């Protein structure tokens, strides 16, 4: 496979167990699983922890090099009057689907496509199993998850399901109890450092330790993000030797959130609120989801606000987070949070001033 | 790969006959009587089996059919529909009704290939598994079908929540409630499987396993199988059970407790503890559930301040609202920050509970 033009994240993605660098206990367990009998698996953990990479390694260990030959297949399902487009990635032994992409029709995808695949015996009789990989299971609707229940049990002789989810909170309990849960934690900062250095070595780049430290810090232990930031930094510097004070690139929206937090603490007037609102609207117009803005804004605020009022801010944020999830217009709730924070902060400042006198 | 090895224990040890069903004595006795009745009279009513997951509803229904028809006629007499099948109003009208209409020959008391005699009464059985997921419209369409063809067809409706079944359907069935399995019944069952499969497990670990599965036998068996896979050469321990059951290990819950209530913590350190838990990928809902459990049972332990009933009660409120929010799809970090900082606030200011109500 040609690696020209690939992002480093993809180019240096490990494909066998021996190439995985961190979580060595987990790797050992997965290895011994792949050697014997594989149960249904449920990989869960935060984004950027390496769930898919590990799924791929399991497939590779089960079926060998063949799974690298993947092809993308577009299928059209016809159910009654509906037509549903499904995109699958398949090799001779496995197939990957993301049912939640079909939105409300995900139940039909499970009922038609997955049941169909699960119930037909694998072509190659030497390998008595075939594997269905389901991505973003936590995004699937309840009905679709219900539909998976019996399918997983009934065809367990010929078929294994590997599910990938960010959080198991939204995976139905009956599904969870049918799988072996595999928790993939985020790599530690030093793990990230090791990976970054090895990539730098392969790319022939000198990467000073101080910069590694800073990338590991800003990435929030998300390896994918760390690698992307590293590559972005490398591009913006434009040389093979990176200076240790090179700026680590963040997303534009993150800078805006930082600004917002500063604005909110600087003055608490109606005038300021209007300025804040403009920025919030700008963020939303650039398709940053409301809950992401709220979380980031909260993080930035907590970083600069005084320790005493933090619990109250968290409490207020939790409330507006609930409203935001239920409501349909994020701007109202974000603005309400900003206004409420101003109120808390102004009261706090007043109290401080009174104590000084 | 050996055929037997690839099988799930849940399927392998699924009861084959009604008499093998664990614990549900009342149901078993009634159904066994129905099987042994002079056959041909067909006096099995429509059945509605309900109860929490993993208590043996589906197993009982399948075993009953096997007892009645034997392997020979099983395929032609039983139609099993579950949530993996399309069950809208159209299917009720076409598939179910058509199957229900077919008359059957009364070949009473046939000998199966295994030499046993099966009653083989002159009716067919339609099993509607996971019936909670059948729409109201489709259920309504079933009403008349159930009555009209009751001479040749019996329905077994299986669901978790009886309230999801519309009244007219429920009233046409004999209802059987399946209770969560008590500790002893589970223990006997699990011990037997452990012995057959060569799993080494201590009594204490088994107790922890059963406790964590809340009377759900399937969950317990699955957990044991998963844990056994991960750790086949040594005795099972609590950590491998927690990992296999997607639980938060007790040590992490204890650390969370300590981080939020121990003396000398700051709001920043509380949030750091939350960040740590989230980046390890533990499930926040699971954490809340286990924390609440711990909170109820807690007495004064080392480094953790004691709480009175009022404090516990107000914390329960905070946890409940966070749980609801998480189920609704709220942000895990924000909600956990709220819970953690509320815990620390309540733990240190027993008289300050009123503050929490104001948002």
Automatic annotation (TrEMBL), chain A:
GO terms under biological process: DNA repair; DNA-templated DNA replication
Keyword Acetylation attributed: no
InterPro entries in UniProt: DNA_pol3_clamp-load_cplx_C, DNA_Rep/Repair_Clamp_Loader, P-loop_NTPase
Pfam families to which the protein is assigned, alphabetical: DNA_pol3_delta2, RCF1-5-like_lid, RFC_C
Residues spanning the membrane: none
Coiled-coil annotated residue ranges, if any: none
One Gene Ontology CC term in the entry: DNA replication factor C complex
Gene3D superfamilies reported in the protein's UniProt record: 1.10.8.60, 1.20.272.10, P-loop containing nucleotide triphosphate hydrolases
PANTHER family in the cross-refs: REPLICATION FACTOR C / DNA POLYMERASE III GAMMA-TAU SUBUNIT, REPLICATION FACTOR C SUBUNIT 3
Single annotated GO MF: DNA binding
Keywords: DNA replication
Keyword hit for Transit peptide: no
Protein name stated in the entry: Replication factor C subunit 3
UniProtKB/TrEMBL annotation, chain B:
Entry-linked InterPro entries: AAA+_ATPase, ATPase_AAA_core, DNA_pol3_clamp-load_cplx_C, DNA_Rep/Repair_Clamp_Loader, P-loop_NTPase, Rep_factorC_C, RFC_lid
Record Gene3D superfamilies: 1.10.8.60, 1.20.272.10, P-loop containing nucleotide triphosphate hydrolases
SMART domains reported for this sequence: AAA
GO function terms (MF aspect): ATP binding; ATP hydrolysis activity; DNA binding; DNA clamp loader activity
UniProt cross-references to Pfam families, sorted A to Z: AAA, RCF1-5-like_lid, Rep_fac_C
CC terms in the record's Gene Ontology section: DNA replication factor C complex; nucleus
Family indicated by similarity: Belongs to the activator 1 small subunits family.
PANTHER family: REPLICATION FACTOR C / DNA POLYMERASE III GAMMA-TAU SUBUNIT (PTHR11669), REPLICATION FACTOR C SUBUNIT 4 (PTHR11669:SF20)
Protein name according to UniProt: Replication factor C subunit 4
